[in-house]
Amino acid sequence: MEVSIVGAGLVGCLLACFLARRGHEVTLYERRPDPRLSGAERGRSINLAISERGIDALRRLGLAEEALSDAIPMPGRMMHAVDGTLTFQSYSSDQRHAINSISRGALNGKLLDAAEASDGVRVRFGHRLTGIGDGTLEFEGGIVEKGQQVVIGADGAYSAVRARLQQMPGTDFSQEYLDYGYKELTIPPKLGEFAFDPGALHIWPRGRSMMIALPNPDRSFTCTLFWPHDALAALDTPEKVRAHFGKEYPDAAEVMPHLASDYAGNPVGHLVTMRCDPWYRTLNGTLVGLIGDAAHAIVPFYGQGANCGFQDCVELDRCLDETGDDFARALELFQRRKADTDVIARLALDNFVEMRDKVGSRAFLAQKRVEHALERVLPGRYVSRYELVSFSTTPYAEVERRVARQRRWAGAAAAGLLIAGAVAWKRSR
Ligand SMILES: Cc1cc2nc3c(=O)[nH]c(=O)nc-3n(C[C@H](O)[C@H](O)[C@H](O)COP(=O)(O)OP(=O)(O)OC[C@H]3O[C@@H](n4cnc5c(N)ncnc54)[C@H](O)[C@@H]3O)c2cc1C
């Protein structure tokens, strides 16, 4: 088939590789100029955490090694208290497990290279989709591409493809913004070295708000503030910025020489959950589908948006296997993935409260120690939610079913132990 993919971001490029491997002719349309030549776009997160779901998708195409060549493993999180106390907490009871800090621009560049190197893939930069007509794709500047059989929107949270589907009766859509924005700042290398331990995702939990930092290969850290919009706007002079950071994030402020100018110059991003149903329609004979953030943008607090989009590609590839490359039936089947993406959308929202408020507390750390102890005592029988989400490819909805079963079972075991203890105590008297 001839397939058009709109959006040559992370998911669009990976999908192009999967479809090309099946022998389809793919054209990738991207609104930006080639980012390998023009550099990263402002306002996108500079780095991201890639974990097992994303790596599994890359591995299936033989791309994992190259894509992860500059990645920095982060086996745990490091909490920074206001008084400078540091607390490390492993993500897994298995010391080999880590999430990986990776540059978005570098990953996108490598996936573009892989897509362009695949037989049957053409990439068209500078093509911003503005409409879908009668078997046509319409782009800014009056460009029209005719004879469209299959169009897949991989054009991100503010998808133009999805906007067209939303105009059709029967398409449900919702968007839910948090009252929070995000802003990126930089901690440059300190005397040529990382200013903090690069083997961790750093978190400054401050109750209502937080800052995180991920390491980069050039020994800098990219920090992201997740603050209420009013708090972000309130720091409107360099003095206020420095005073606030000196009070709330003193250890970071010390190693941020460009703090005030970065703060004033860097944009504020929005945090949104988008839901759409269904993800496919037929438009005047053209099959139109959605994938990645275009189908289900989620907030970034579980580090799963791109991982989930990569796993979408594996699932769509599986649906094409199951239907003998009948795209109409495959896109219909692919809708089963929504049960999973609804779950991760909810978990990502819940995890915000955990990250900004709970991770610093003794109760939270004790609970994680108990979870890891249970994982070691009952290997394969008790597995924490974080472990299943980040270090397995278990479908997200199945993760939730399994966690619920484990909770029931652990509750029954605890009740059994209490009763046995009470009986033993009574007998001993
Ligand atoms: C602050 C932040 C931190 C994050 N951290 C993580 C993380 O740690 N781990 C993780 O897995 N995920 C993370 N994510 C989520 C991740 O960035 C997204 O889930 C991922 O980028 C989605 O990929 P995509 O290809 O679907 O969409 P995008 O990356 O948005 O790509 C869409 C592409 O489509 C192009 N496009 C848009 N409109 C048009 C148009 N009209 N015509 C043609 N082209 C168009 C865009 O230019 C872009 O290239 C984070 C997100 C944010 C905001």
Task: Give an account of the 3D structure.
With 429 residues, the protein is an alpha/beta fold. The chain folds into 3 domains: 2-70 and 103-175 and 273-352, 3-Layer(bba) Sandwich (FAD/NAD(P)-binding domain), CATH 3.50.50; 177-270; 362-428, no CATH class. The chain is 43% helix and 24% strand. It is built from 17 helices and 19 strands. It binds flavin-adenine dinucleotide. Flavin-adenine dinucleotide binds at residues 6-12, 29-32, 45, 48-49, 127-129, 154-156, 160, 182, 224, 269, 292-294, 300, 303-307, 309.
Query: What does the oligomeric state look like here?
Result: single chain
- Structural class, by secondary structure, is alpha/beta
Beta-strand share of residues: 15-25%
| Average pLDDT over all residues | 94
The CATH topology of the largest domain corresponds to: FAD/NAD(P)-binding domain
Bound molecules: flavin-adenine dinucleotide
Q: How much helix is in the residues?
A: 40-55%
The number of domains is 3
Low-confidence stretches: none
CATH superfamily membership of the largest domain: FAD/NAD(P)-binding domain
